[in-house]
């Protein structure tokens, strides 16, 4: 089970409380985040927040019985989540 975060930050994003975390990422993941940040002209931290928020939304959808489908360039559709 994950340990609870120790403190909240009162100068929050979007008017709500927030917590600061530190993560260690593989170099390839960090480079992908930097590329996304550069492409979208946002900070790397914002790219990470967006990725986390997207993943949490997809997990919630999956928990509610939903599926995430991707249509490939060749027109084929594949299920991405759930993965099994």
Counting H and I runs of at least 4 residues, what is the number of helices? 2
State the helical fraction: 40-55%
Q: What class do helices, strands and sheet pairing give?
A: alpha+beta
Strand order, sheet with most strands: 1-2
How is this structure best described in words?
The protein is α+β, with helices and mostly antiparallel strands. The chain has 2 helices and 2 strands. Strands 1-2 form a two-stranded antiparallel ribbon. Helix 1 packs across helix 2. The radius of gyration is 16 Å and the shape is extended. The two termini are 23 Å apart. The mean pLDDT is 86.
Walk me through the topology.
Blueprint: H1 27-40, H2 44-63, E1 68-71, E2 77-81
Antiparallel strand pairs: 1-2
Helix pairs in contact: 1-2
What tags apply to this protein structure?
single chain; alpha+beta
In short:
A hairpin with a 5-residue loop joins strand 1 (68-71) and strand 2.
